[in-house]
């Protein structure tokens, strides 16, 4: 009879040790670093702020381009003399240079503003979803492999657009 309680005790101890090991393993797995990735191009292009600022920039570009086109038309006119043509040509060259500068400066400054906002919203998104790392990649060029199951591009895009529009 003495053997039965000790074998029962051995079984119970073994089960407890097994349960403890299982608990440690499951706890370790659940606390693993959560890493996901997003497609930067899709995120940037789909962001409402990008669309809004792009529309504003296009309007300004069209206005400036129209003014240049009108100058060019005047330059081509046969009803103006050489000195007027020379003045208009200088204005045209200056306007063309200003248009190119506008494009470069607008793209750089607006992109910087957009990425700043995306980063801010992404930080909040990461905290809400317990992500320790979100990797951004353009068509996976910087990432050698990423399982499609861990992309959160669409979820993050929805989140940042709601935040931008004041819905969240």
UniProtKB/TrEMBL annotation:
- Carries keyword Transmembrane? yes
Q: Give the transmembrane ranges.
A: 6-26
Would I find Membrane among this entry's keywords?
A: yes
Q: Supply the InterPro entries for this chain.
A: Chaperone_Skp, Skp_dom_sf
| Alphabetized Pfam families for the sequence | OmpH
Organism of this sequence: Flavobacterium pectinovorum
Please identify the protein, giving its name as recorded.
Outer membrane protein
Highest taxon above the source species = Bacteria
Keyword annotations for this protein, in alphabetical order, are:
Membrane, Transmembrane, Transmembrane helix
